[in-house]
Amino acid sequence: MPKTKYSISALAMACALASTTSWAGNEPGNTDGLTMYGITLYGTVDVGVSYQSHGSAFSDGAATNVNNFLIKASNKSNTSLASNGMSISTIGLKGREPLGAGWSGVFQFDTGFLPASMTLFDGLRSIARNNGVPLAEQKSYGDSTRAGQAFNGKAFIGIESPHYGTLTFGRQSTLLNDAVCKYDPLSCSLAFSYVGFFGATAGTGDTEDRLLDGTLKYTYANGIFHGGALYQFGNARELSSSRGTAYQVDLGIKQGPWSFDGVLAHKNDAISVGGSLTAAQVAALTKPGSSTYGLPADKTLPGTVSDNTSYSFLGEYDAGRAKFFGAYEHIRYVNPSSPLPIGSQTIGGYFIIPSNSAFPRPKIFEVAWVGMRYAVTPSLDFFGAYYRAMQSSYAKVSCSDASSPQCSGHYDALSLVLDQRFGRHFDVYGGVQWSKVYDGMGSGYLQRASFDPTVGVRFAF
What we know:
It is a multi-pass membrane protein. By secondary structure, the protein is mostly beta strands.
C-alpha cells in the first residue's frame, strides 16, 4: 500500500503542475497552457455513480471499482461510487521533437488510476484480494493489462515521418486494441461496452494482452490505405514482463464515408486470470512439500495459459450526424506450445499457478457487435450498441448446457447512453447496460442477468 500511496501522491503533484502558470504561454498558438517546449501534460478524470441489480462490492483495484457487467461473483444489488465509466482516468506526458528532413522523435508515458478510490489501476490486485474468499462474498474484480505498474498505460519512444510512417518501441496499445476501440460505438467504455469491460476481444483472447511490453510497432497511412505491423519480444525478459512472443498485422481502407479494417493477431503463452485462489490453494502456499509452497498469498493467482490466434473484420459508415458500426472477431485457443512452470511471473510482478491443459479441444470464441452514434444536438450525443459473445464446446464430449465452463454458450449485452458536452474539456454522461449469460459461458455464475445504470462526469486536459 505505501507504493500505491506514493504513486497517487505523484499523480496529485502532476495535476497541480498542470494548473500552474509555468506551463502557459511558452508555446506559440498554445491555448490550453499544458504544453511547454514540445512536451504536453495530459490527463482524464472520470468518476460517477453506478447501480447493479446483480453486482458485487466496491474494490479499490478493479477497472471501474465495481462490476458493471455480469461476472461469476455478481450476486446482490449494489450502488456505489465508480471510476472510468466512459474512459480510463489517466495522467501522462507526451512529446514530439523535430529531428530534421521531416522526421520527428516521439514519446508517450502515462498511467491509469481510479479516482473513486485514489489508487492505481490494478486488476490483478482486485482478484488477489479475493484469494480464499467464497464466491458470494467476493468484492468486484477483473483481469487487466494494468496491474499497478508505474506506467500501466503507454510507455514508448520512437520516430515518425509524414512520408514513411511511425515506428515506436516499448509498452504500447496493440493494433487489435486500437481497431476494436475505433470501431466500437462506445470506444471501449468500461461501464457500457462489452468489448471494453471484457478485454479478451481486444487482447487476442486475453485481456492482459490489450497492451504489450517490449513491442516494436509500425503504422502507415497513404491515400485511402492505412495499416500496421507489431511484434512483441516476449521471450526477452529484459524487454518485457509478458510471457511469449506476439505478432499482429492490420490492413485498412477509408473511402468517402466508409472505413474498414482487418486484423490478424497471434499470442504465445497468453495468460488469463479468471478468478481467485480457492481456500485449499491458499492453504497449500504455506504447506511444506506443496508444489506452490512459499509463493505469497497476496501476489499469487491461478492462470490459464494458451496460444491464441484471432482474425477480425471491422467497419464504419459515417452518415454525418449518425455513424454506424459493425464488427466480428474469431479467436482460437489451444494449449500452449511452451507450458509455463508453477511460479512464473506475469505483469505487475504477480506469480501464476498455471493451467497448461485447459483445452482438450481448441476453443473457438466469437464476438460480434453493431451500433451507432447520433448527434442529437451539436453538444449532445446518443450511443446505442448490441454485443454478442459466443463460445464453442471444447470439452472432450461436446455439451451445450451450464454443467461445465467447457460447454458451448453465449453472452448478450445491450447499452444505451447519452453524453452531454460542456465545452472542450468537460462532459456529463448517463446510460444503462443490460447483460445476460447463457449455458456454458454462465457455468458457476451466481446469477444469469443484470441491469446496470451509471451516471458520471469526465474532465480532460
